[in-house]
Structure prediction request, 179 residues.
Amino acid sequence: MIDLENIDAQTIIGCQEEIANALEHTCRYAGHVYEHYSVAAHSVLVAALIPELADPMITSEARLWALLHDVGEAFIGDIPAPVRKVPRWELRYLQEVEDRIAQAALKAFFPEGTWPGEVAIAAGKQADADVVFLERAIYQMEAFSSHGKPPRIDYEKGDWLRAVQGEAQELAMLVAGVQ
Prediction:
């Protein structure tokens, strides 16, 4: 059992396969989609939509941030945005837990002494917003129409963990000055 009050980078490293499995089985939009669409697939798509930025290190930071931005959902599930925004619901504790998990994941996968900068985070957040816009069109509005199935986003089991490990290695090499 993972202690979410005291989660740290070592815990994240030790259970990264469990996290990947949970993200692959956690459906976006509380399951209100035509077919299963996982948080892991969403995160891989967000990272893939980050353009090449002027600085390769910032690009790598942004992609790694994108892959990890919803990692807390491996433990607390996907809470749709409309629910998160209802002020009378007391979701502050869940947000605190999700933030702790995210901080631990960033510490686990970013090279020691590095942290995603403002430009990287902004690029990641923009890509996330772009993906959410696409997802809503593909998986919600068209999912229940008479036009048939929406297009499928390609994702295979293990893609998220492979992407996280690959991007973490890429960033470590950039930090070390190796290319």
